[in-house]
Amino acid sequence: LKAGAVAAGAPASHAVDWFWDGAPCGIDVHPSLDGIWPLKEEGEFEPPAFDDISAKVINHGTTDSEVVEMLKQYEAKGYIKRFRTTRQFKKVAGDNVVFSKLVVIEKVRFDAIANDFKTKKRTVLDLKASSISKATRLKYKGILPKAVKAIRDMLELMRRMAPDHILLQMVTDIVDAFWILPNCPAERKYFVAKYGNHIIMCLRTVQGSRNAGLTWGTIVGIVGRCICSLFADGDNGDEELRMQTYVDDPWCASAGTEARVTTNFAMVALTWLVLGFPLAFHKAQVGPKIDWIGLR
What's the pTM? Predict the structure, then answer.
């Protein structure tokens, strides 16, 4: 991924190093993304850290079987590190540690496949209450694609379609999106929580932290351009596939013969997997009509 980004002259190619060095969180270490994202103006509206429908705070010392299971899964995947003694924790974290409360987010989404609403729970840190959000400098603002961009892409593909060609769309879901990217080791002491008798340190970018969406968007932008390059014709500028990614929901459309479009979609999915981004195939949709970012 780094070699491809450098060869293409991508201004964000240095961000690939975050997979080794950790993504800066904007407290002690700040991302350098000039020319990649627009600067955030003073006093400009900032969306909430997490768009929860309902949430409950898990207080220190309480037990909840669902939270325990989620934390076990995160630990098994290497997303968090659990310390059983204060001595062990201090050896790693050092001084000036800030603790935050764990918050369980219950998010309700409409499942177009099941034609019903489903509730999904996940854990985040309440960084606003611990003043970590206030201490974080957010220099840039991320920009998410709108549905009109996907419509424009399909119209452009349709303009070049042959009589025997078809146009299909595919949307997938990246599993544990924000957890995929490591955070900066020097700033991990700010993303800590107590649960029961254990201390938990986050080793990946934390949903709810102010720069997590920006660093994640930078990385998926690089991957998206890498994928699109597989379908670009350098001679005449034609493309067989167009792509947009809304946070962790990559959308793409392709025009061609049925066999070619199927192959193109397989190449897209395979590239995500090869680069280490797991996909929730049970949520994937393929067809002339799909549901994406709340629209069909």
Answer: 0.86
